[in-house]
């Protein structure tokens, strides 16, 4: 998001920055809201089966975290549902009737999630233990479904379907075809696995760190193991899902693929470039490591296949190549790193002992999954530019006419930074108190 | 199809006001001086709101989704012209939801941090209620102008003025009133009950006074609520009925007949909304260029059908789960301590 020096952000840039920041903020809480209930239910299950107190403490500690994060996720999600109209009325006017359907289903799923979380948080003594346990699981399941619906709506922007575009108006609308567009499956799968992976690593990392510090070792080791089972399994599945997603992008949005690979010239035996800095002006890649023919293989399963480059598109239809390429490299690089850690985790789990260096590595990788998610959304969203509906409607034609968007952006920047800071602070307090409690008993 | 959707829209709005509204009211109540009752009141509100506020909040999201999928032109018109009040509302919604939760789940319950959470929760509840009323008033005053050339008439004039503010005050009063009636049945503590009854009376009086203010101030409006009202016997009847119910309500309140008080208070709100609805139906908003009718601005038939299906199937899940939620928590066993 380039800001011209010496002048304030223009309205389009400010609107995009607001949307990016709101989504980037919400996605962290959404990922946690989708995954954390499963971790919590696993710990709760162990407690109910074996009756051990540590699992109960862990369940309650995670539950308090879920309560805080769910609240932030719910309200920041509400903001997003308004912002679709506040920032992009030109988009919603056309897109609402076409792609509103997944949102209406998401509403239902979210409703059930909200009811279930109320039941779980406050229902400890009001239901039989297993019914209570099941309400916690319902939070996770309905949250997971919400995620799939919302990503399906997003995927429609990348693979528009279920309408015909005639003279700037949509006709022949088919909401079902729009929801099950050609990008919904790979995007949803990629995101849901990413959520499990990122949260598994984040939670596992924090508990590995606390374990290394010697605080409440039994609790933290157990917590780390539960979280990392989810995180490591997802990290091992993700490369396959990611590859599937890449193939679909190659087919549906060749310009996006070209940008994320920094592939300027259409060619057969296209190389895969690791790292590197693409230069849009000279249309070349600097300092990348090339693996000959690999991009053709990955995109089309054939080293001789032609991979479309950015040269097939007029320059005003290019996404910002540098941003997209770097974000993609970050996402894939971190994904690979997490896959290796995941493999090691299962190896040490089988051996029954975790060496300190590995726990240190886990602690260090706490934020990796979340960074990868953010990078992945940059690839998806910035990679679709300059389109808001791919090859149908340009982002600049959808933005609100309301001026002074930079203030809107600043308002949410301050609000969300404040909320983010407070959340971290609350967690630090909570971890401290739970540990004291466990250590005292 | 459109009738069903408009029904769902109205029902969601009504449920948001009834259920979410009393949560806002609880916040407003906590903003008021409470002396030594403060901690006890906080506890009652935490227990009453904690399990249900997220579910109550989702009625608002449903309103937004029905609008943008079913009536996209009305949705975008409002989001452009009322950008600023919507933004203000959102700010309040975010702050109050998070502060309520943070207050409860902060592991270290210090007096200073708790005080700050409570103040922010209360202030943002009042703030959101005011803006909700301002937005409601702006829909039908005929100042929304999608073709306006300058900033003031495009983005400020539609919601600016004494009339929308008076509606904001009216809505805040209703919310506070609902909270008092509702909370009365959530505690056995006689001192607190006295407080809820007393403040219920104050809010009730405020609703009547500010309602009168709304009426008078609307006389100067381009599309005048008061004049519309006088020409609409049915709408007048509903409002009259709502006012008359005050007397009945007070009898039940004095005797602490919890269920009946709640039913009648809810009935009053239903009547007020119904009156409002009768005045403007079938218009979602009235702009300078003319009214935006739900019938003329609806999405294509295929979309409406899918939305109706989603809402019907959704209801089949949502209502049983809500009933279960209420049965679990509202079957209150006195003296019981929650554990969480």
UniProtKB/TrEMBL annotation, chain A:
Provide an example Pfam family for this protein: Cyt_bd_oxida_I
**Could you tell me where this protein is found in the cell?**
Cell membrane
Question: Is Metal-binding among the key words of this record?
Answer: yes
Q: Which domain of life is it from?
A: Bacteria
Transmembrane feature ranges: 20-46, 66-91, 103-124, 136-157, 189-212, 224-245, 322-348, 357-379, 405-428
Q: Which GO terms describe its cellular component?
A: cytochrome complex; plasma membrane
What is its membrane topology? Multi-pass membrane protein
E.C. designation(s)? 1.10.3.-
The yes or no answer to whether the keyword Iron is present is yes
Q: What is its main location?
A: membrane
One GO BP: aerobic electron transport chain
Keywords assigned by UniProt, alphabetized: Cell membrane, Electron transport, Heme, Iron, Membrane, Metal-binding, Oxidoreductase, Transmembrane, Transmembrane helix, Transport
Q: What InterPro entries does the record tag this protein with?
A: Cyt-d_ubiquinol_oxidase_su_1
Q: Which GO terms describe its molecular function?
A: electron transfer activity; heme binding; metal ion binding; oxidoreductase activity, acting on diphenols and related substances as donors, oxygen as acceptor
Q: Which PANTHER family match?
A: CYTOCHROME BD MENAQUINOL OXIDASE SUBUNIT I-RELATED, CYTOCHROME D UBIQUINOL OXIDASE
- Give the family, as the similarity comment puts it: Belongs to the cytochrome ubiquinol oxidase subunit 1 family.
Its recorded name reads Cytochrome d ubiquinol oxidase subunit I
Q: Which organism is it from?
A: Haloferula luteola
Q: What is the lineage of its organism?
A: Bacteria, Pseudomonadati, Verrucomicrobiota, Verrucomicrobiia, Verrucomicrobiales
Automatic annotation (TrEMBL), chain B:
Q: What is its EC number?
A: 1.10.3.-
> Per the UniProt entry, what is one GO biological process?
aerobic electron transport chain
So what family is this one in? Belongs to the cytochrome ubiquinol oxidase subunit 2 family.
Question: Which InterPro entries does UniProt cross-reference here?
Answer: Cyt-d_oxidase_su2 (IPR003317)
Residue spans making up a coiled coil are none
MF terms from GO for this chain are:
electron transfer activity; oxidoreductase activity, acting on diphenols and related substances as donors, oxygen as acceptor
Looking at the UniProt entry, the stretches that span the membrane are 6-32, 44-68, 74-95, 116-139, 159-184, 196-220, 232-252, 259-279, 307-326
The UniProt keywords, alphabetically, are: Cell membrane, Membrane, Oxidoreductase, Transmembrane, Transmembrane helix
**Protein source organism:** Haloferula luteola
Q: Where in the cell is it found?
A: Cell membrane
Q: How does it sit in the membrane?
A: Multi-pass membrane protein
Q: What is this protein called?
A: Cytochrome d ubiquinol oxidase subunit II
């Amino acid at each position: 998001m380039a800001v011209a020096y010496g002048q304030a952000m223009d309205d389009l840039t400010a609107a995009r920055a607001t949307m990016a920041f709101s989504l980037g903020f919400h996605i962290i809480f959404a990922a946690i809201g989708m995954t954390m209930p499963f971790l919590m239910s696993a710990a709760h299950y162990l407690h109910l089966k074996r009756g051990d107190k540590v699992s109960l403490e862990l369940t309650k500690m995670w539950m308090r975290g879920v309560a805080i994060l769910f609240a932030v996720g719910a309200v920041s999600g509400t903001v997003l549902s308004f912002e679709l109209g506040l920032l992009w009325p030109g988009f919603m006017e056309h897109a609402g009737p076409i792609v509103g359907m997944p949102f209406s289903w998401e509403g239902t799923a979210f409703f059930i999630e909200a009811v279930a979380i109320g039941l779980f948080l406050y229902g400890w003594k009001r239901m039989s233990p297993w019914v209570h346990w099941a309400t916690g699981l319902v939070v996770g399941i309905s949250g997971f479904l919400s995620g799939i619906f919302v990503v399906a709506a997003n995927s429609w922007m990348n693979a528009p379907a279920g309408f015909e575009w005639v003279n700037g108006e949509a006709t022949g609308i088919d909401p079902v075809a729009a929801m099950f567009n050609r990008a919904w499956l790979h995007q949803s799968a990629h995101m849901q696995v990413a959520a499990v992976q990122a949260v598994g690593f984040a939670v596992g990392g924090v508990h590995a760190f606390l374990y290394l510090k010697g605080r409440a070792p039994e609790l933290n080791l157990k917590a780390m193991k539960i979280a990392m089972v989810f995180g490591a399994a997802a990290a091992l599945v993700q490369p396959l899902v990611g590859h599937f997603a890449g193939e679909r992008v190659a087919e549906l949005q060749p310009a996006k693929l070209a940008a994320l690979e920094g592939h300027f010239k259409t060619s057969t035996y296209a190389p895969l470039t690791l790292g590197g800095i693409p230069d849009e002006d000279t249309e070349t890649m600097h300092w990348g490591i090339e693996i000959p023919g690999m991009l053709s293989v990955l995109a089309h399963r054939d080293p001789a296949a032609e991979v479309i480059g950015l040269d097939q598109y007029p320059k005003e239809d290019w996404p910002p190549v540098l941003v997209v390429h770097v974000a993609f490299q970050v996402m894939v690089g971190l994904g690979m790193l997490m896959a290796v850690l995941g493999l090691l985790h299962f190896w040490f789990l089988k051996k029954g002992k975790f060496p300190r260096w590995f726990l240190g590595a886990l602690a260090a990788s706490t934020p990796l999954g979340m960074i990868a998610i953010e990078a992945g959304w940059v690839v998806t969203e910035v990679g679709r530019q300059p389109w808001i509906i791919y090859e149908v409607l340009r982002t600049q034609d959808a933005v609100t006419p309301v001026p002074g968007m930079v203030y809107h952006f600043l308002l949410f920047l301050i609000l969300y930074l404040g909320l983010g800071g407070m959340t971290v602070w609350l967690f630090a307090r909570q971890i401290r108190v739970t540990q004291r409690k466990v250590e005292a008993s | 199809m459109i009738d069903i959707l408009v029904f769902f829209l109205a029902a969601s709005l009504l449920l948001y006001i009834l259920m979410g509204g009393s949560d806002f009211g609880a916040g407003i109540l906590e903003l008021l001086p409470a002396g030594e009752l403060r901690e006890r009141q906080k506890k009652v509100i935490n227990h009453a709101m904690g399990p249900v506020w997220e579910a109550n909040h989702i009625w608002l999201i449903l309103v937004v989704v029905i609008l943008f999928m079913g009536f996209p032109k009305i949705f975008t018109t409002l989001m452009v012209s009322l950008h600023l009040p919507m933004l203000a509302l959102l700010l309040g919604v975010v702050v109050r939801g998070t502060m309520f939760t943070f207050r409860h789940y902060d592991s270290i319950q210090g007096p200073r941090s708790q005080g700050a959470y409570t103040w922010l929760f209360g202030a943002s509840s009042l703030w959101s209620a005011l803006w909700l009323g301002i937005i409601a008033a702006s829909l039908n005053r005929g100042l929304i102008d999608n073709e306006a050339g300058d900033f003031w008439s495009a983005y400020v004039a539609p919601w600016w003025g004494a009339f929308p503010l008076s509606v904001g005050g009216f809505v805040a009063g209703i919310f506070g009133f609902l909270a008092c009636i509702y909370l009365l049945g959530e505690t056995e503590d006689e001192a607190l009950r006295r407080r809820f009854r007393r403040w219920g009376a104050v809010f009730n009086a405020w609703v009547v006074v500010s309602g009168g203010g709304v009426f008078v101030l609307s006389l100067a409006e381009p599309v005048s609520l008061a004049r519309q009202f006088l020409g609409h016997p049915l709408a007048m009847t509903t409002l009259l009925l709502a006012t008359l119910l005050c007397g009945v309500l007070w009898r039940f309140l004095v005797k602490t007949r919890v269920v009946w008080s709640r039913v009648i208070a809810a009935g009053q709100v239903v009547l007020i909304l119904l009156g409002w609805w009768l005045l403007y139906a079938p218009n979602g908003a009235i702009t300078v260029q003319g009214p935006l009718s739900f019938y003329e601005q609806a999405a294509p038939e295929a979309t409406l059908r899918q939305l109706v299906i989603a809402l019907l199937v959704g209801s089949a899940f949502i209502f049983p789960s809500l009933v279960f939620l209420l049965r679990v928590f509202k079957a209150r066993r006195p003296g019981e301590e929650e554990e969480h």
